[in-house]
Amino acid sequence: MAHQLSALAAVLAFFLSSSAFAGTTIGTQGFTIKDTWGEGLRLISDSNNVAKFDLTNIAGLNYSLTDTNPWSAGNGTLDFFDVSARDGYRVISVEYSGVISGELIPAPDYPDSWPYSYWGGTATNNSQAYFGTYAEDTDLANNSQKVLTFTDLNGTVPFSLNNSTQQLPQTFKIWLEVYAWVSGTPGGGQWFPGEGDDGYYSWMTPSTAKLGILNPVLTLTYAPLSAVPEPSTYAMLLAGLALCGIVRRRRAG
Prior knowledge:
By secondary structure, the protein is an alpha+beta fold. It has one domain (about 1-230). The protein is built from 3 helices and 15 strands. It has helices at about 1-15, 55-60, 230-250; strands at about 25, 30-35, 40-45, 50-55, 60-65, 70-85, 90-105, 115-120, 120-135, 145-150, 155-160, 170-185, 185-190, 200-205, 205-225. Strands 1-2-6-12-9-10 form a 6-stranded antiparallel beta sheet, with helices on one face. Strands 3, 4, 5, 7, 11 and 15 form a 6-stranded antiparallel beta sheet that branches. Strand 1 (about 25) and strand 2 (about 30-35) form a beta hairpin. The protein is rod-shaped.
């Protein structure tokens, strides 16, 4: 269901990527790239046929909550990038990479011991990333897509998604959709007074959940096209080879 919603959102974004959403175009030596949804892209470096971009929208997906009430927080980003290789170049790979960090500290549970009663809390986090490259005139749903999911993450993990199995045309789009979410419930306890006392006393113990996407980077590798001789050049080459053959036969005779 989540993936179906993701695909629906992606198709909707495709049609909304018009002049009303005209974003920033960035030029490199080998290509230009346009963020059709805004300004969530910043060039970090462009050297040795490798261009790296900081994904500022995704870097904002960073959540940390501690509370004594049930809670949840999260958000997502949806980006489309138009890429056009410059004359004499082609883009050979696209990669989305970074580090995801999470921490979960649910409120502890303890064994009940009269007159005390306890219960533990919960803490969870979750992140999904959908990544794909596709040509201008093709259906996104029919193209190679990569999905990355992290659930209940405690620690720091590097990640990478790329289009290593797909040959890229001179003009194409990049689809990148990322979500992050944290939620939890508190723990607590109750104390029941002795006989003759009215009511009881209770308290809440907070739970903590954190999730952040650190240093998200979009990397495009490009290369110069091999020189392709013009038809006239082929004709001259063939004529030269033929002349060499005639000279050799005459010498042999």
